[in-house]
Structure prediction request, 165 residues.
Amino acid sequence: MKKPTAPKPTAKKAILTKLGPGEYVPDVAYQRIEDLPQPKVIRQSRNAKRRPCPHCGQPAPRDKTFLRALYDVGDLVSGRPRLLHITYSQHYCSRCRKYFNTDLSDVAARQCLYTRRVQSLAMRLVVEDGLPYRTASWHLWRDHRVFVPFATIQNWVEAGGKKSP
Ligand SMILES: [Zn+2]
Prediction:
């Protein structure tokens, strides 16, 4: 005769907590940036031994390498933000006697901590959808897992686009 097997509480609990398709789960609002989940770091390279000088076109050797960190749209599967770490080179043109950096302007605007992808998403939410800045900020975190303070979005919109009435 077979011994009755003891019920496995962990298995039962797993079934109970398993979510069905489309089941609603409210998201958590973070009060402090340091409480956000750790970002996934994506490493990219724009490091080259030489690049043509933007002023005279002469090949200029690498002098140093730097790292730029940029917040991109997050990873929706893990729910974590994504941080790009781009290694890029600085070059010295001996003819112009000038230093220049590898161009990253296709990825992000100067001095900006976010990729252009994030910036245009934020602008669309405000300019096209007419969302208030705070709502746009929350939407970016909830649906795209990128944390952008609402004041930053406001600066972008006021500098670039026009808020629809
Ligand atoms: Zn030059």
